[in-house]
Specification:
By secondary structure, this protein is α/β, with parallel strands linked by helices. The chain has a single domain, classed as Rossmann fold (3-Layer(aba) Sandwich), CATH 3.40.50.300. Helix content is 23%, strand content 29%. The chain is built from five helices and six strands; from the N terminus they run E-H-E-E-H-E-H-H-E-E-H. It has a six-stranded mixed β-sheet, sandwiched between helices. The chain binds guanosine-5'-triphosphate (GTP) and magnesium ion. Guanosine-5'-triphosphate (GTP) binds next to helix 1. The site of magnesium ion (MG) has 4 residues, from helix 1.
Amino acid sequence: MKKITILIAGDLGVGKSSFVTQNFSKTYVPTVGVDSKDVTFYTSHGKIVVTFLDMSGSFAYAQFHDQSVHEADAAIIMFDLTRPDETTARLDYWEALCRRIPTVTVGNKADLHDIHSDYMTMSVATGHNCTEPLEKLFSQLFQQDKVTIII
Ligand SMILES: Nc1nc2c(ncn2[C@@H]2O[C@H](COP(=O)(O)OP(=O)(O)OP(=O)(O)O)[C@@H](O)[C@H]2O)c(=O)[nH]1
Ligand SMILES: [Mg+2]
């Protein structure tokens, strides 16, 4: 069994908590500070228990950023495909924050805005591409050719 911590970073309302809980609801409940949730994945390379650190996108809680990244082995940086200008403006900030760990940058809400992007895209609402960012990080962290999530 492997155990890792993955930070979920990105601006307000891009879909970080929806991704972590995999419990899609249209009601938006902003995260306060940082939430933590353990999820078990069964993969082609065994069981992986992930502690997700789900940060608020609000800079009112910026005091949590350094500590959270310090605890993380890898990060998913998320933006909102329906608000590309607004939510990619701080990608440089999030990428600099996570510079010491492997990261994947993902555009979410592809169900509403299915455009070509240089970044990986996904939709928490439909489940489209939701495992790919994790598989990419697992493969990098465990130096396997390709780790696939079974459930
Ligand atoms: N259509 C659509 N809506 C989504 C998707 N993912 C999340 N949402 C919606 O986006 C809103 C914000 O989602 P959250 O997961 O709370 O966003 P967050 O990034 O955790 O926001 P903060 O905690 O405030 O930083 C909610 O109303 C969700 O229902 C998606 O893939 N498609
Ligand atoms: Mg949240």
